[in-house]
Structures are given as structure tokens and as C-alpha cells.
Design goal:
332 residues, 2 domains, Rossmann fold, single chain, Dihydrodipicolinate Reductase, domain 2, alpha/beta, 6-stranded parallel β-sheet
Length: 332
Amino acid sequence: MKVAVVGATGLVGRVMNEVLEEFDFEISEYIPVASERSVGKKVIYKGKEYPIVSIQDAVDMAPEIAIFSAGGSTSLEWAPKFAEKGTVVIDNSSAWRMDPGKKLVVPEINADQITKLDKIIANPNCSTIQMVVALAPLHKKYGIKRLVISTYQSFTGTGAKAVAQYESEKSGSKPEKTDMAYHYQIFENAIPHCDVFLDNRYTKEEMKLVHETRKILGDDSIKITATAVRIPVNGGHSESVNVEFHQPFELSEIFDILKNSNGISVLDDLENFKYPMPLYAKNKNEVFVGRIRRDDSIDNGLNMWVVADNLRKGAATNAVQIAEYLVEHKLV
């Protein structure tokens, strides 16, 4: 099993390597890929040094699986070239997510849609992944009519430049404008602006939550609105999710469903002040759900708080789980 990690030196790529190691994913040949300026440098995987190769060399090596975390333009150009060689690409960018011919996969929900014909598989957006893991079993039981989502997202979701900006500001220095990932300081601040603004005055990140959720859950009738906020947290996205169901529910049923669903850890013990926080989620692979309560202002309304490590389940872990599914079901 030859596996290429495209973008192996990036923020998510490094976590990809960690997760592959932790999952003890069976690899006969590990192929780290990065930009041309990094070719020849070394990446350590399972205690062994591997030289970084160019993306063209990786294509020529025809790996069974290529996990991409190198940006949308790289994915658009190179994923089809890998696919032509018979490689299955698992892409972490937004390039293929809304392509009607590509599967958008969260393994706990819809991995069974993958076939041998699927050579490019899209990994959803980080904030979408954790939310739909919590919502999918409830949607199956009660049917979701409407979602109102507010996200509180770690600066790590923006990448290495944002991490450098935060660390610089935290240390008391003021980074140059050209070194800033955001228009404003992120340290001790909250910025209601994730990704670029669109013509409808929403951001691209907010609309990803709308479109990707409908595609993954297979229901275009769900009404969804979102506000995405960047906060000074080093690892972990949090989400306030307000749900209106078609069907009535018992709160005890909600707890039972979530507790018995794969990939979810219910953390909801108010007497002992236990609820999901990025502090708990950091470096963990599951989605944490808590503050579960009725919304009495509407019929069949529910509020919950959903937290996950955005670099793990929101990116690397989900991609590796897809790879595991491919191997387990002999799709590569």
C-alpha cells in the first residue's frame, strides 16, 4: 500500500502524518510531497526519515492512495493526474466538495456511498464535519427542518501564517501587515469573518456550512443559516447549533441517540460543570457534544454545543478514516 501525503509539511499535513502513525495505517511505501522548494528535505514518519518528492514524481510512483492538503488550486490541477494513474485521491481542500460527480464523505455518515469508480473523494470543511457527525443520527430519527449555526473557530484553521500572527501578538510584538493572516489582531479578539465575503454578505465559510451539510445529509430541503467567527483558541472549533426538527422528541431520546452514535462523546454533566471545550477536544479524534437542551421558543427545537479538534476530526482524522474504509472494503 503506497500512500502519498501531498502537503506533508503543512499544518494539516503534519497532523495527517501523526494520525496515520497513531492509527497504525498499513503503508508499504510512504511518499511525502511538498512544494518544489522543499524537495529533498526530510520528513520523519514512524521514526524513519523520508525525502520529500515533487508532486510529479509522486504521480509517477502511482500510489494507491494520495491524501491532499495543499490548497484548492493544487488539487484542481493534480488530483485528476493521480486519478488517471488509478490512485484514489482524498482531498482536503474545497476544490471538489460541491462537484456533483464527487462524493463528500464523513465516514460515520455516508462512506457506504463510495464505489471503486470514485477516484477523487472530497473531505468536507472542518466546521461542517463535526456538526454533521452530531446531527446525522438525529436527522435520521426526527428530520431536520432548520439549522441556525454560530461557530467559534480556532485560528489554526487558517493555517501557519495565522499561528505565527497569534504567537507574535501573544508575545507582545506587532507583526508587519504583510505577515498578518487577518485584517485585525487575533490575540484577545474575536473576528466575525472566516474566509472571503460573498455577494450575499455571508462569508464563504458560512455558505460551506449550508451547502455541504445538505449534500452530506442528502437533503436539500433543510433551511440553514450560519455566522462564523474566528477566535484566539489554539486548536478546536466550537459551534452553537440550534435545530428545529420536523418531528417531536424526548430529550432523553436525544441523549441516548448521541451516546450510541459512532464518533461522538457526550459531555453534559451540569452539576459537575462538564461540557465540551476546545481544551478537552485538543489532540482527540471524536466530536464532543453537550449543553443539550430544548429550545422552547419554537416547536421541536433543540440547542446543543459541538466541539472538535479542527486539525483532527475536522481534517486529518476524517481523511485517514476514509482511507481506512477504502482499504477495509477493498476499494483500492
